[in-house]
């Protein structure tokens, strides 16, 4: 199904990005600590966790939005290397890239909110038999890793706001 393909491609992308960011594999505590600090590892866990679960559109929101952000980043680098500004297609692409970059923080906050709001949905899925009994515990660990993220602090920011408001 398209749901599984999206999660498999997200897992492959996360694994590739993780491979690019980490040094050569070592079976040591330091390497494992560095591995679990990387956002790519978090989303690899996220994707693998939901590949065999019941398809829920809300699970795909972070995957799709991060795919858009990564595509925009790659396209911008590609256009900078090519350097052709005269073509109208290139100008339109640059305008679209600028628009996405303008709303990037809002998108990251929305992704963080979606990740937080998925927890009650996962508990409901587990209670109705649509997800495994282990998924809520693994997802809780995923959320705690996202909360301690260095690259994307928006999960921490949104959680803090939720506690302050309530």
TrEMBL record:
The keyword Metal-binding does not apply. One of its GO terms (cellular component) is endoplasmic reticulum. It is a multi-pass membrane protein. It is found in: Membrane. Keywords: Membrane, Transmembrane, Transmembrane helix. InterPro entries: PER33/POM33_regulator, TMEM33/Pom33. One of its GO terms (biological process) is membrane organization. It comes from the Eukaryota. The chain crosses the membrane at residues 43-69, 116-140. The keyword Nucleotide-binding does not apply. Coiled coil: none annotated. Its main location: membrane. PANTHER family: TRANSMEMBRANE PROTEIN 33 (PTHR12703). Belongs to the PER33/POM33 family. This is Transmembrane protein 33. It comes from Nematostella vectensis (Starlet sea anemone).
């Amino acid at each position: 199904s398209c749901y599984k393909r999206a999660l498999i491609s997200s897992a492959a992308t996360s694994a590739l990005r993780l491979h690019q960011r980490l040094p050569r594999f070592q079976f040591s505590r330091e390497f494992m600590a560095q591995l679990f600090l990387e956002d790519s590892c978090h989303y690899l866990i996220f994707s693998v966790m939901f590949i065999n679960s019941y398809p829920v559109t809300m699970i795909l929101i972070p995957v799709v939005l991060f795919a858009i952000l990564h595509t925009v980043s790659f396209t911008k680098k590609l256009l900078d290397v090519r350097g052709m500004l005269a073509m109208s297609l290139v100008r339109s692409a640059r305008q679209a890239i600028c628009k996405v970059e303008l709303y990037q923080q809002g998108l990251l906050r929305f992704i963080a909110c979606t990740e937080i709001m998925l927890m009650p949905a996962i508990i409901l899925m587990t209670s109705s038999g649509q997800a495994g009994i282990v998924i809520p515990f693994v997802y809780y660990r995923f959320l705690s890793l996202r909360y301690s993220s260095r690259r994307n602090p928006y999960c921490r920011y949104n959680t803090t706001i939720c506690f302050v408001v309530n």
